[in-house]
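Entry 14. Structure prediction run on the chain below.
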Amino acid sequence: MKRTVHALLLALFLGAIGSGIFVHKLTAADVPFLPNRNFNSWYVEAKIALNSQPSILSESAEVPTSIELHLPQDSQRYEISQENFINEGFEHTFKSQPNDSNRKVVFTKQDNYDSSEYIFYRANIKRKPGVEPGQEEIPLSGRRLVDKQIVRFGENIERVTENLSENLPASEIKSLLQEAQDKSDGTRLSVAQQIYQLALNIEDIRVKSIRRNVRKPDSTVQIAAFILDRAGVPARVGNGIFLRADEVYSTDFVEWLEVKDGGNWFTYDPLNQDFGLQDRYLTWWYGGDRILQAQGANNVDLSVVVQPNTNNGITGQVLGDSSAASPFLAYSFLGLPLATQRVLQILVLIPIGALIVSVLHQMIGFNTFGTFTPILISLAFRQTGIFVGIPLFILIVIIGLLFRGYLNKLQLLIVPRLAA
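Output returned:
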């Protein structure tokens, strides 16, 4: 009787703690209670790895003395609500230029401090009020992976500029412009549309010549912008990311073509083959340069992680550096990198799964294959999904039973048989 009372009191005490945390998240942390009540915001994290590849001539990796990184900016659909940096051993300063909408930050190494192996930029991106979520897919012609081959400041741009000044394909550009004008209705946007379509033809000898000189063999957008710029048409290359409703790790950067007409910038949509306002992507930077450039080392790596945000209250306080107001925020998982958060989320599911299996086995009476076997299977289904996981699980069980029947004929010992 005494043991039962102690167990009941302990259960009530733990239940009260869990209920208090649950109510706190609903009220103070503003966590949605229903699954269809999600906030229109995303958690974007850019991680710069400084010691990704040590030098061949030295055992220790070279740490760059200066790093320049493009930052995302407000667009027609999205806006940046909060952002912060984690740059131990580096000082960060914002860099801007006249008549340039790009946002840049420069990380400079401090001589008297030991630098960390990683630099993080984190931001909370919100969809602007009154803007409906889009259902468009990313056009394959505009997809571009994050460029991980980092060069010194201005090295690649100077090389391309020098090459163009010596070997400008003037006749090829003139021929493409003349063909585009003949096919268009004479307006600036129509000419730009025809130029983009001509640049898609990689078998055209004129396009091949321009691609060799511009040194952008895989970028149709930058080829079209280069030709339009030579024709005196204001054109630029936009770069950004697509914010999805699911988690995206190591997301791709997408580039698009923008042409200025009548005081406004219009974006060419390869899907609809028409110009309009850019409202599909989160704009990161404009131009053909890389998102990140390092000075002092060539072993810098970059990865961008995007995660839908469903705990708007906590994330806003963490990014706003108001952890001192609540002692729980100082130990929140949201202060960790997104990749680490994902690992911890999976680890936290193990005791929850053990509790569910124990209740089903002890109170309801279900027969289970131990305690942790159902948990491991459920974690596998979490990664593969139900529709793919169930057929894959059935296939693995069938193959295992066939092998077990064969191994039983070999009359192996118990330990080798179980291991096999």
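The longest helix spans residues 338-364.
Filed with the rest of this week's runs.
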